[in-house]
Design goal:
The protein is mainly α and 208 residues long. Helices cover 28% and strands 0% of the residues. The chain is built from four helices and no strands. The termini are far apart. 8% of the residues are buried.
């Protein structure tokens, strides 16, 4: 059995396999290009027709590639000289947290897909996520301003670190414990209805 005559494109494609011959023997389990399109014939005849059709496709492909190489390429010219994407001037540094942006800033929101906690967002519904987070952050900023006794000026402020307890002191008189504290808190099981931090303030009932 002589191998099928391979054309130049077939040799360049690197598929010149000596296993693909004329009058293929039934029982060959390898892949035959385009063999699934020929049926109702003897195995050898179907394989022969499939390989001939595949070689014809390679010749057409080679001609198309040669035609494309002959077409002159013209350089692309811009539609207009103006910048299609104008750069927006930032009034805050790139990467500034939305918490520190003023309420009227158009970038004071979290993008969709953010999985962190957003204060005051639970009661806002039926809006897109950026709109909900913008309103929630604005409400949160107003609440913080009222608690701290200042007006909402829309300018970022520096947060001061709270004073920590002296080393070795767990229960303080003025502040409570951090949630998830796994140590013992005196009389904790008899207290309820308030947050963990408020409940553990002055846990030892010391006179202030």
């Amino acid at each position: 059995m002589e191998p099928l005559a391979r054309s130049k494109p077939a040799q360049e494609e690197g598929w010149n396999n000596t296993k693909l011959k004329g009058s293929m023997v039934p029982g060959y389990t390898g892949y035959v290009p385009k063999g699934q399109h020929f049926f109702g014939q003897r195995y050898a005849q179907a394989c022969d027709n499939a390989l001939k059709s595949f070689e014809a496709d390679l010749v057409v492909k080679e001609k198309d590639e040669e035609t494309l190489r002959m077409i002159p390429r013209r350089p692309l010219t811009p539609v207009s000289k103006a910048n299609a994407y104008p750069v927006k001037q930032r009034d805050f540094a790139y990467g500034t947290s939305p918490y520190r942006l003023p309420n009227e800033h158009d970038e004071k929101y979290f993008v969709s897909g953010y999985t962190g906690f957003v204060p005051q967002a639970r009661q806002l519904l039926a809006k897109s996520y950026p709109v909900i987070t913008h309103e929630a952050l604005s409400i949160h900023q107003d609440v913080q301003d009222r608690v701290r006794g200042r007006k909402s000026l829309g300018t970022p402020t520096k947060l001061t670190r709270a004073k920590t307890a002296p080393p070795g002191v767990i229960y303080t008189r003025q502040s409570g414990l951090i949630p998830n504290y796994t140590g013992h808190v005196p009389a904790m099981k008899f207290k309820y209805g308030r947050t963990y931090g408020a409940t553990t303030v002055n846990a030892l009932n010391q006179s202030i």
